[in-house]
């Protein structure tokens, strides 16, 4: 298993990455443009901007959830329960934690929750 400090560093890097992705998405949102309200764009442009805004909002919601999940994982590292499934209390395989460092469930429990 990876050392506590390595896990913390991995999660902190992931948190920084998510923060940057959120910033980039916000900057690309057409509704963040101050001239958006006052421009006289055609209807099809308004529709495209609305669709882009909705897509960006959905992506940002997913990233905000991931950010919260990373914070939870960091707390689990401190408590010493990082590699333990929240549902069944079995050890989460290291490979799963490498792929999804913020996960709180083993594969079996995750599958049960998705069904």
From TrEMBL:
Bias (Basic and acidic residues) ranges: 24-36
Zinc fingers classed as dksA C4-type: ranges: 85-109
According to the UniProt entry, its GO molecular function terms are:
zinc ion binding
Q: Which domain of life is it from?
A: Bacteria
Keyword Zinc present in the record's keywords: the answer is yes
Cross-referenced InterPro entries, in alphabetical order? DnaK_N (IPR037187), Znf_DskA_TraR (IPR000962), Znf_DskA_TraR_CS (IPR020458)
- Span list, region Disordered: 24-47
UniProt domain Zinc finger DksA/TraR C4-type: residue ranges = 80-112
Q: Mind telling me which SUPFAM superfamilies this protein's record contains?
A: DnaK suppressor protein DksA, alpha-hairpin domain, Glucocorticoid receptor-like (DNA-binding domain)
* Protein name in the entry: Zinc finger DksA/TraR C4-type domain-containing protein
UniProt keywords (A-Z) are:
Metal-binding, Zinc, Zinc-finger
Under Gene3D superfamilies, the record lists: DksA, coiled-coil domain
| The keyword Zinc-finger appears for this protein | yes
Source species of the chain: Candidatus Roizmanbacteria bacterium CG_4_10_14_0_2_um_filter_39_13
The parts of the chain that form a coiled coil are: none
């Amino acid at each position: 298993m990876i050392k506590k400090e390595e896990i913390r560093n991995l999660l902190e890097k992931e948190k920084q990455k998510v923060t940057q992705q959120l910033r980039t998405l916000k900057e690309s949102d057409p509704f963040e443009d101050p001239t958006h309200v006052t421009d006289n764009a055609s209807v099809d442009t308004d529709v495209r901007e609305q669709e882009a805004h909705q897509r960006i909002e959905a992506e940002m919601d997913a990233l905000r959830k991931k950010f919260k999940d990373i914070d939870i994982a960091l707390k689990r590292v401190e408590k010493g329960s990082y590699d333990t499934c929240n549902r069944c209390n079995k050890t989460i395989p290291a490979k799963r934690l490498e792929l999804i460092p913020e996960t709180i469930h083993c594969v079996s429990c995750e599958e049960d929750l998705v069904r």
